[in-house]
Amino acid sequence: MRKEITGFSNPLVKRIRSLRDKKHRRREGLFLAEGLRILTEAREAGFLPDMLFRAAGRDAHALEIALEGEVLAAGGDVIETSADILGKLSGKENPQTILGVYKEFSTTLETLDRKSADIWLVAQAMRDPGNLGTMLRTGDAVGAGGLILIDDCTDPFSVEAVRASMGAIFTQKIVQCRWDEFITWLRIGPGQLVGTSLQTEVDYQAPDYQRPCFILTGNEAQGLPETYEAECDLLVKMPMRGKADSLNAAVATSVMAYEVLNQFRLR
Is the N or the C terminus of the chain less surrounded, counting Cβ atoms within 10 Å? Predict the structure, then answer.
């Protein structure tokens, strides 16, 4: 159904704006994604928004027109509004001209097919939504099967994480679980667990990585707990030639993922 909203006091504006808060996202089971590129990535991955907000008074891109048609055909709503109201919804001063409201999704370890991909990313207590989104983007780039979030990670469906993922949140499987659940599941089937750590002298290019490879990255400030490192099949680190003692968590994950990918490509 097509609708129009012109006032900030509209109840739907207040409802959608509340999705920027984790508590309300969980209650509603909905999240926000903005920008034609991300929404197009979602559409190509088979995800359509329940509601599509677009800025009125402008010529729409052909991809936007196609998306609108599919949303309406699927029984969703297309809502025209002002750029100011879109800014209110997204929390940005210069908002994108299109914003989608999607149902949250996730999978479980039990339904995950570890053999469907050679590389899987695992993040433990990741706090920064930008890092989490970047890890999703890296996973998409290297053809990873998905991202497994261990313990208390930041919400992958926050506006910031979705934005940083550049659409990869729709292409990567996402699992949220506790460490004991993950390690129990991992050990009942094939899978090499490789942790990034400062507590080793093994250069990240030295090992012979095995399929499927699970790349484990710890919390940005504290790294991996010692008990978690003890469960890894391998601990590796990257050489640091400057004064910094470690890389950003998402950057380290990207470096590792491409090293593993390059090894697999050469076999």
Answer: C
Query: How far is Cα 124 from Cα 181, in angstroms, rounded to an integer?
Result: 13
SS3 of 60, please? coil
Closest by Cα among 64, 121, 128 to 97 = 64
CA distance 33 to 30: 10
Distance, CA of 145 to CA of 158 (rounded, Å): 21
| Chain segment 198-237, per-residue pLDDT in tens | 899 999 999 999 999 999 999 999 999 999 999 999 999 9
Contacts with 145 (C-beta within 8 Å, 6 or more apart), sequence order: 112, 113, 114, 116, 117, 119, 120, 139, 172, 173, 212
Please give the C-alpha separations between residue 24 and each of 18, 20, 34, 157, in angstroms, as whole numbers. Answer: 6, 8, 18, 12
Topology annotation, domain 2-103: 60s Ribosomal Protein L30; Chain: A; (3.30.1330)
Euclidean distance between CA atoms 174 and 165, whole angstroms: 12
* Domain ranges, ordered by start, for the chain: 2-103, 109-265
Q: What is the pLDDT of residue 244?
A: 83
pTM for the model stands at: 0.94
AA identity, residue 119: I
* 118-166 residue pLDDT tens: 999 999 999 999 999 999 999 999 999 999 999 999 999 999 999 999 9
End-to-end Cα, the chain, rounded Å: 52
- What residues are paired with 121 via a beta bridge? 147, 215
The CATH architecture one would assign to domain 109-265 is 3-Layer(aba) Sandwich (3.40)
